[in-house]
Amino acid sequence: MAYDVVVIGSGPGGYVCAIKAAQLGLKVAVVEKRETFGGTCLNIGCIPSKALLHASEMFAEAGHSFDTLGVEIPAPKLNLGKMMAHKDTTVSANVGGIAFLFKKNKIDTFRGTGKVVAAGKVAVAGEDGKTQEIETKNIVIATGSDVAGIPGVEVDIDEKVIVSSTGALALDKVPQNLVVVGGGVIGLELGSVWARLGAKVTVVEFLDTILGGMDGEVAKQFQRMLGKQGFTFKLGSKVTGVTKAKKGASVTFEPVNPAKGSGDAETVEADVVLIATGRKPYTEGLGLKEAGVEMDERGRVKTDGHLRTNVPGIYAIGDVVAGPMLAHKAEDEGVAVAEIIAGQAGHVNYEVIPGVVYTSPEVASVGKTEEELKKAGIAYKSGKFPFTANGRARAMQHTDGFVKVLADKETDRVLGVHIVGFGAGEMIHEAAVLMEFGGSSEDLARTCHAHPTMSEAVKEAALATFAKPIHI
Ligand code: FAD
Hints:
Radius of gyration: 24 Å
Bound molecules: flavin-adenine dinucleotide
Helix content: 25-40%
Shape: globular
């Protein structure tokens, strides 16, 4: 039977695309080589990491914060096996949910490795060695990404001592010393999990800042907060070797800019080393070259503004194409492609894609950073409001951090909002909605916000771009 759409990969890009296409009346099939649906995000990414982040945060709070609230309990005891079971149950429920949604939407599923034979033809190689061919009017490549190594350094990731994020989500004991190579989102989130459970965490980062690409002021303040939580940072450091020892492993690094640093190479020992230097698009075995699909210089599938590849009838979405490697970006592209294939006007607004770091406190951002605005020569106003001046934050003992609103100097249109603080990942969405509608900081400041909420800090920061905030 010929399909309207065959989606290769069932991550947030692929499964959302398949469901949306089915909802629009198209005949859809999904090809997935993993045992369960949901891709990186549900199996070994967003969902298991958030399960462990939440559980470890509860552990840390029970240990540090309850007493001053008048809740006296004995020192909490870690049951790592139970914590991992919570993570596994969360993952199972989520991946099972996708299987249910596929059935509900009458989407056919093929288990095996998909290969693009040509436009209109996908071959699926099953584990039994048998290959079957599926005919389809359209193909959507949603094969995601895989762990990238350290450029120029050979690293033997065994997922026990030298681990990627996948191994770091499944350690069977808390390492005494954990070295994280890479101070990006994944490294800091997983570093936080193990730091809260008792590991001494050292982050080695090539750049002079953590969270490269985030607003500089936010990144700096956040680094100080992590420092207070016991993190050690080796910034501006280029890793030259990661070596397994009899017990644990060692990481050797040298200053990226010897004039700035001590100039000497340094080696740190660890029980576990987490390689968190980013991810690369995954196109192995897909046959794209043979099918004539163009790739860019970074190995990503090249697409136009409508997520079409250069071969008619073949589309690509998610981590395998350009743009931020985020689940919600992949999902929105999935919806857009389904709509485009169904003859509608699918579209993704890349200017308004929130980014969240699910640490404690959280960091969230949408739109332009100050550095980007300066570089683009855009005149802007900045308004800031600290959570120390927010009543709800005080009541909850979550006064760390601030909200920063950046608005166009001439038009007052909000160009970027950056939050570091408890619940930042939820608060950022009022800014995203405002920006989607082209709203101004005055619109934000004049919108009635419930009291007492952390979100009042967003309103006050908006107010601070053109007038005086009330509570400071
Ligand atoms: P994927 O989710 O990678 O799915 C691709 C699927 O395609 C996989 O299941 C793969 O098995 C399958 N596949 C590949 N090749 C073939 C083939 N030839 N045939 C059949 N199937 C194939 N993002 C967020 O937005 N928020 C977070 O909190 C977050 N946390 C993360 C934490 C970690 C530890 C990691 C690693 C990532 C995290 N991400 C997060 C990123 C997020 O997981 C990705 O951006 C997202 O999964 C990309 O979705 P995708 O559909 O493009 O690809």
